[in-house]
Amino acid sequence: MIRSFIAAVGMTTVALLLSIGTVASAQPTVADPSTPGGAAVTDEQGGAATATPPTDTGLGDDLEGAGEDLAELSRLSEEAGALGEELHLARAELDRTVAERDRLERSAGVAAATAAAAAGNARRDQSLVDHLASMRYRGGDTGATRAAVLAESPRDLVHRLDALSRLSGATTTALDSSKAASAEAARLQGEAQEAAQAARGVADEARNRTEELDIRSEEMRARMDEVRRRVDALSDAQRALWVGGPMIPEGYVAPPVDGINSAALRTALTRLGSPYSWGATGPSEFDCSGLMVWSYAQEGKTLPRSSQAQAVSGSPVAPADMQPGDLVIYYPGATHVGMYAGDGMVLHAPTYGVPVKLERVDAMPISGIRRY
Q1: Considering 227, 260, 293, which residue would you say is the last residue of a domain?
Q2: Cis omega (within 30 of 0) on the bond before 283?
Q3: Is position 88 annotated as part of the catalytic site?
Q4: Which of 275, 278, 274 minimizes the C-alpha distance to 221?
Q5: Least enclosed by CB within 10 Å: which of 64, 94, 184, 284?
Q6: Are residues 220 and 305 in the same domain?
Q7: 357-367 confidence digits (pLDDT tens)
């Protein structure tokens, strides 16, 4: 971002450039991203605008120490941006944790209700067993010998033996059902208890994450306020350094639309010049990952919210195979992201005070490239 510009040029060189007027931003001939095929557009007079050297070249005093100040401001800005992306990821993880907690709580409730029904079945079957046992008790000896003694005829004996068999079978069946229902009730009750315990654990995790998120959000707000205060206090000359080069490099032509990815790029190009805002996903303000999310959403594709999540989703791409619309992930912690715009350029939302712009794709250290 800004840090690479300052490191490359140096305070003395920048002051010299400003003193001769070459840092003033020109409006070069560029591709109109809203025009199919990338038709070139110029300034209002029909030609490429050129920088006008300032009449007052006494900028040395104004820029004395600007290199160190802007380097420090760039560091603060990058830290705030990195923390913002981490918070996007933390919020997404918190949302998943809350959803998992709710699922486990519902599962625990269903398991408890099923266990209660199984216990009711076990009690019903046991009641039948008790009833049959009572019938046996009231009838005295229900064995085959007594049936033979009491039978008044061979036909009566057959009836008595059949009744004995049915009574014994009913008792056995009821007893087996009671045992099975009791075992099922115990199993389901165990599952319900495990689900409830898991839900409590996830709920505690969600609370802890919420508290941590609140603390880090406060830290984020403090850093954002510091960066805003310092950027807003920059002089015009310092602000020119902060913003860097033009939004669109001279001669850039947007690649043709040949699919969703290049269409997302063409949509993103319509946001050139939009202000940076932490946590914003458009349509008029953006942070780095928010610009990616918004641009692809217009083409019906959902991207993860944070640069870290964007860095591990989609498909990896080798630098030599980079195509318009691919996401370029920057820095070891995947704390910044832009969209490859073709012609060796990346479109990104750099930081507070710097609008959405095109820069060389290698202006920052690349940690990965992803295709969606």
Answers
A1: 227
A2: yes
A3: no
A4: 278
A5: 284
A6: no
A7: 999 999 999 99
Asked if 123 and 194 sit in the same domain, the reply is yes
Task: Check whether residue 237 and residue 364 sit in a common domain.
Answer: yes
Residue 348 known to be catalytic:
yes
| DSSP codes of every residue in 157-225 | HHHHHHHHHHHHHHHHHHHHHHHHHHHHHHHHHHHHHHHHHHHHHHHHHHHHHHHHHHHHHHHHHHHHH
Assigned token pair, 85: 């992306």
Encode pLDDT of 265-314 as tens digits. 999 999 999 999 989 999 999 999 999 999 999 999 999 999 999 999 99
Q: Using CA atoms, how far apart are residues 136 and 168, in angstroms rounded to an integer? A: 9
Residue 364 has a CB neighbour count (10 Å cut-off) of: 21
Total number of domains constituting the chain: 2
User: Residue 350 pLDDT > 80, yes or no?
Assistant: yes
CA 185 to chain centre: 40
Token pair for 157: 């004996």
Q: Are residues 88 and 189 in the same domain?
A: no
Contact of 78 with 276, CB cutoff 8 Å: no
Would you tell me how many other CB atoms lie within 10 Å of the CB of residue 5? 19
288 counts as catalytic: yes
Q: State pTM to two decimals.
A: 0.57
Query: Cα–Cα distance between 135 and 313 in angstroms, integer?
Result: 70
Whole-number Å distance between alpha carbons of 224 and 181: 62
Tokens of 116: 């209660």
Looking at the structure, do residues 69 and 102 belong to the same domain, yes or no? no
Q: Are residues 169 and 61 in the same domain?
A: no
Describe the crossing of helices 11-20 and 236-243 by its angle, rounded to 10 degrees: 110
The letter for the amino acid at 209 is R
Range of the domain at 168: 94-227
Residue after which a domain boundary falls, among 182, 207, 227 = 227
